[in-house]
Structure formats: structure tokens, C-alpha cells
Specification:
Helix 1 crosses helix 3. With 229 residues, the chain is mainly alpha-helical. The longest helix is centred in the middle third of the chain and has 29 residues.
Length: 229
């Protein structure tokens, strides 16, 4: 495995941030599964760095809620349960319909190219799961940005990351991200925003989030992927 220092353009980033991004990517892609323990020494050896940037990166992951501290033992990758899923979508339903409506109200002034581009990337993802998930995330984050609320965009990004992780943990969820239902829901939202239809944009977003939540709950009992070598 490559050392962190050897990772292309990432070399321009501070070392702690590079380690953080790699570890977060491992969590989101279920290479570090919920309930697994990680140790500073093991990670330092894996990435070819000292313990200091690893420790600092893990502290950032603790702050973000991806891992928890096990005193004198290491760090535990946070679990993901039905209550977590409920919390995520409760927050999304509180935030995203309002921002979809605000994006529609602002569309004539600021445009919505980023949202439409994300939708087109999603449509062209074919069997590329990472591209499909990233494009879907960019669609939702882009709407908050279009609404003019950078803080909300960061919050929504964190919430969408939880859904991304769930797709990697549960193989049966993968077809949904390419489904006609998913793409058509995004199309309805984008179309309402483009028309400047605030009420319809909010309604379409709310319906989409509720449908997605129900679909995720239905497959939550399916056995998850096991840890990868």
C-alpha cells in the first residue's frame, strides 16, 4: 500500500489532512466497517508516517462523529443503526426542502448549472458506483449552495456521507442509486428549481427524501459486508 506522501496531488495538502481524507474514505467505502477498532501505530505503519498526523487525523474523525475513542485501546468506527438513519433523514427533511425552495427563488439570479451538471453526471454513471454516489451527493449539496447557504451545504454534505457509507455497507442498495425512480426524482426537483417554482421544488425534494428513507429502511436488515483484507 502506498504511503500517504506518495499520493499524487494530495502532496500539496497538509499531512494531517491527507491522512484524514484517506481514513474518512476508508470509513465511507466500508473498508473500515462499523465496530472495527483502529490503532494509531497500525495506521502510522500503513501510511508510512509518524503517529502525530495519524493522531490528529483521528481527532478530526472523532469531531466529525465517524469514530469514537476507546480509552487506552484505540478508536472504534462508529456503528450505523436504524436510529442513525432516522436522525439523518429527519434532519434532511427539515433542511433540504426549504433550500430547494430557496434555490428555485434564486434561480433566475444565480442560475443552476452546478445542479444540472451533477444530474447529468449521475445519468452517465453507468456501473460506476462511486461516480453515481458522488454525483447524487453533489446534486443535493449544490442545491444548498444555490440557495446561498454555505453552512447548510456543509451540514448536508455530512448527512449525505452517511447515506454513501450505507450504500457501500449494503450491496442490495446499490441498484437504487441508478434506478429510474432516483433519477426521475432528481429531474423533478431540478425542473422545479429551473422554473422558479418554489413550492413544487420543496414538495419534490420532500417526497424524494421520504421515498429514499423508506427504501433504505426496507433493506436495513440485509446482512452487511464484512471487513475487507
Amino acid at each position: 500500500m502506498r504511503a500517504v506522501d506518495d499520493v499524487g496531488d494530495e502532496s500539496k495538502q497538509p499531512l494531517t489532512l491527507r491522512v484524514y481524507e484517506r481514513l474518512k474514505d476508508d470509513v465511507l467505502h466500508a473498508r473500515l466497517v462499523p465496530g472495527s477498532t483502529v490503532l494509531e501505530a497500525d495506521l502510522a505503519a500503513r501510511f508510512g508516517v509518524s503517529k502525530t498526523p495519524v493522531r490528529e487525523a483521528l481527532r478530526l474523525l472523532v469531531q466529525d462523529g465517524w469514530v469514537t475513542v476507546l480509552p487506552r485501546k484505540g478508536y472504534l468506527v462508529r456503528s450505523l443503526g436504524l436510529e442513525d438513519l432516522r436522525d439523518v433523514f429527519q434532519l434532511r427533511e427539515l433542511l433540504e426542502p426549504e433550500f430547494a425552495g430557496e434555490a428555485a427563488a434564486r434561480f433566475g439570479v444565480v442560475g443552476g448549472g452546478v445542479v444540472r451538471e451533477a444530474l447529468e453526471r449521475h445519468r452517465s454513471a453507468d456501473d460506476d458506483l462511486d461516480l453515481a454516489l458522488t454525483s447524487a451527493a453533489d446534486f443535493h449539496i449544490g442545491i444548498a449552495e444555490l440557495a446561498g447557504n454555505a453552512r447548510a451545504a456543509r451540514v448536508i454534505s455530512s448527512l449525505v456521507d452517511e447515506v454513501t457509507r450505507l450504500h457501500h455497507l449494503m450491496p442490495r442498495l446499490e441498484p437504487r442509486i441508478w434506478s429510474r425512480e432516483e433519477l426521475d426524482a432528481h429531474e423533478r426537483i431540478a425542473a422545479a428549481i429551473s422554473r422558479g417554482d418554489r413550492r413544487e421544488a420543496a414538495r419534490a425534494m420532500r417526497d424524494h427524501l421520504r421515498s429514499t428513507h423508506q427504501a433504505l429502511v426496507q433493506v436495513f436488515g440485509v446482512p452487511r459486508r464484512t471487513a475487507r483484507a
